[in-house]
Design brief:
435 residues, 20 helices, binds N-hydroxyamidocarboxymethyldethia coenzyme *A
Length: 435
Amino acid sequence: MSTLKDRLRQKIEEHRPRTTRLLKEFGDVKVGEVTISQAIGGARGVRSLVTDISYLDPMEGIRFRGMTIPETMAALPKPPGKDYPYVEGFWFLLLTGDIPTEKEALELVEDFKSRSAIPQYVIDILRAMARDSHPMVMFSTAILSMQKESKFAAFYEAGYDKMTAWESMYEDSTDLLAKLPAIAAYIYRMKFKGDTHITPNTNLDMGGNFAHMMGIAEPYDDVARMYFILHSDHESGNASAHTTHLVASTLSDAYYSLSAGLNALAGPLHGLANQEVLRWLQGVMDKLDGVEPTEEIMKKFVWDTLNGGQVIPGFGHAVLRKTDPRYQSQREFCEKHLPNDKLFKYVDMLYRVVPDILVEQGKAKNPWPNVDAQSGVIQWFYGLKDFDFYTVLFGVGRAIGVLANITWDRALAYPLERPKSLTTDMLEDIAGIKK
Ligand code: HAX
């Protein structure tokens, strides 16, 4: 039995009475009300989900298990000589709320390695797909194709037990996380690197091995660690986390649930925004035909995009009302490692010009940049210029958060999610509109 699974069991047993008490003794206490604009408008601000994995404050940004991004990065054990922590140790933190010791993190590194082999049929399926399929389609399909490996599904078939169901969900989640980097790297090299592949190096941790399989030199291993951790979790109401949770609530296993969650991530208003930022910037460059953009030129492109009825990718957020600390964190990385990069300068120029324009336009509730505004630049700098692939990188990271969430969903026996609908007639009646 692994240290993490033992610790998780202890945490779950400690936590269960809290949820039971809230339900039994305080189930009728109100946490809020729903307005018509929330019912029509995508449930913004409706507080109807519970997670302890992370919390998103509109002004401060994300905290993982109570810790800000800099606190998280500082507290977790790191591979020798590296600036960013073991992703495996971060998985320990998200699941338990405890910082693992170096020994515990290394135990997990070994655990992940033992689960990391990809079945040959996954490779066969990827190879059979149209080569011009979007990498997210390939990624989601590869995950779904492994559903037959699900320990949770087997556990359900063998006779379901609510109290121990989390264990097989945990096993599926860890199996998946261990395999995702190799699947992602396979898709990348098949599509964009002439179908040449690099054998995994089992001496390396998840971030190190991912960089190795991608064929990108140091410090891309640290980029991978940073990137996966930053993109992991953003509480449970964002579209990818919520979809994963919703699907899992039907007692679907982690394979079905994660695949579905990634399909939500693939939308341009969500995770696809990171590729859209780069696509947008490339469009600007093409039109300029080698001329360096000035702030005035950039402003014109921003206005042209808005006047064309499109959003500025990488800006705005459904919850945040300040610059995303995930953006800041990546910006600090850029200042350290690629301060003179042309693309970084353009993205920084966008930071200077876009918020004022969005305020002037008067629509976006949050004019500030989000995580996606900065992430593509880093990938581009390290040679990963195929921006169609960027959302897959986001997906590997996002999996850590959503899988931690659905493991806890099972532990606390969260029920089938099924909000209630109203008709437009009913809303008009509630509003007192005479017909
Ligand atoms: N550019 C132009 N207009 C924007 C905008 C932007 N970046 N952000 C918001 N708006 C507009 C909305 O389209 C909306 O317009 P309409 O009234 O005409 O429909 C209006 O401002 C109000 O929207 P909002 O309440 O501020 O924002 P929402 O909560 O509805 O949506 C989004 C949040 C992130 C989807 C939105 O800000 C957006 O489209 N941003 C650009 C795409 C993007 O960067 N997505 C990634 C977000 C982070 C993330 O999830 N990463 O995965």
